[in-house]
Amino acid sequence: MALTAEESGRLAALLSEHVDQVTQRWTETVAASLRGRLSQVELRSQLQELRQAIVTTAENGIVDLDAEYAAELRAVLAELSRGRARQGFSATETAISVFALKEVLLELLESHGGESTLRDYVAFSALIDTMGLFTFESYVRTREGLIADQAEQLLELSTPVVKLWEGVVAVPLVGTLDSARAQVVMERLLQTLVDTGSPYAIIDITGVPAVDTQVAQHILKTVVAARLMGADCIISGIRPQIAQTIVALGIEFGDIATKASLADALRHVLRLTGVETTRRSRRGA
């Protein structure tokens, strides 16, 4: 929604000539909806900045939120939305910060408006609605970004790579193994192999509730990638139910070593490295 040059001029004049009244009433109205979750000083500063951006845009002539000269106004609205989203405010609480300006303008028009009061209020309200929608869209984009970042962080936390012994690392998997998580598992395992120079990696699937063809393919791809890095992989956590499922599905792990538990897998690796044999010979001596 765009304002005409005359409407834009009257809007700029209202917001410029009654700065204190606009800021005070706008702050009070928004603060009531936020229930003290944002300090009056911070809220007042945000609304003053938004008021000034509206005035600056209106002084250019026709107010059109999509126009190039409205870039500053869009930037202020976007920053307001991003800040509220990061602080945990709801979309409604964020949008009210913009929509509350309607009530303030109505009071001003009733007190200082002329013959065009009703027409101006309708035009100003339409502009504020457009600003509110822009704020809501910016808020949603920010929230989606935050959720995506948090999901990625949780994904990384759910796929730790731990060092069990010198030259031995393990990936204890818990929960469903989908394509996205499998990619994270592979990347973290390969990076750990590079960082530690470990020749052995144990992939423990004790916490994986079920193994189907897709899960098996993800595991096999991870093993192949690790082998390309010069590391041997052992799969542990093969419970009886999982073993039956693997056989029923015709899944073949080929020459990949599999063990019933993580402890069995670690003992297997220690035998391969000669650690267990060395300890026995010391006890015999």
From TrEMBL:
Annotated STAS domain residues: 158-269
CDD domains (alphabetical): STAS_RsbR_RsbS_like
The keyword Lipid biosynthesis appears for this protein: no
InterPro entries: Bact_StressResp_Reg, RsbRD_N_dom, STAS_dom, STAS_dom_sf
Keywords of the record: Phosphoprotein
Protein name in the entry: STAS domain-containing protein
Species of the source: Micromonospora musae
